[in-house]
Input
Amino acid sequence: MSNPSIVTPPLAPRVCLVAITRHGAAQAARLAVDLPDAAICTSAKFAAAFSDVTNTVRAYDGALRDEIAPLFANYDQIVFFVSLGAVVRLIAPHLRSKDEDPGVIVVDDAGQYVIPVLSGHVGGANEWSERIADLIGAAPVLTTASDVGRTIPVDILGRHLGWRVEAPKINITRVSAHVVNGEPIAFVQEAGSPDWWTRPTPLPDTIHRFARFEDVDLDKHAAVLWVTHADVPQERWDALHERLVVYRPPQDDAA
Output
């Protein structure tokens, strides 16, 4: 297989809460109690709101736009208590790709909604939005198709179990489309923990499970998700042309 994309599980995320208004700072200070390892970035005018928390606080005197580059460089999740439109304009010059950009999350000034804006899947913003929403009693606003449809997130499946994704990026894109469009998908698990499905809803009936690759009728399935330790020959990648994604569990895991 030529130039596969390998996605490795991330380390513990570095989180920063960003607030520039009185209400935003008050909300961020309350959230900081539940996220003691998160850093704080706030306008110096409202730094006093964080006097009772143990979090690291950066109080800046200039413009927030001057803080964005270091925030992107130093954090994996950036939670803005700032309006969505302002955040979009602030981060636009710094965007690179979903494999490099941090997760960006917006909490509205009333604390009613938590919105993942950037890097929802690979960057983890969707997962963190749900976590933050639960902590502050807000509603997470997810727009990623696999999350809304409660189906398999092809790009991060099994990440919580240490699985690595192995496939060209075009395969991940094509197979993700087949999954969210409700086409029949073969899920072959020859290795790894069986506890990979973590959603509260049942596995969609378009996902058909198999114990061996050889049991799959490839003519009846739009794509194959294959969890295995086996070598995948180039001929198989070629035969399945953009329809195959492979997952590599840790070697000591057993199905």
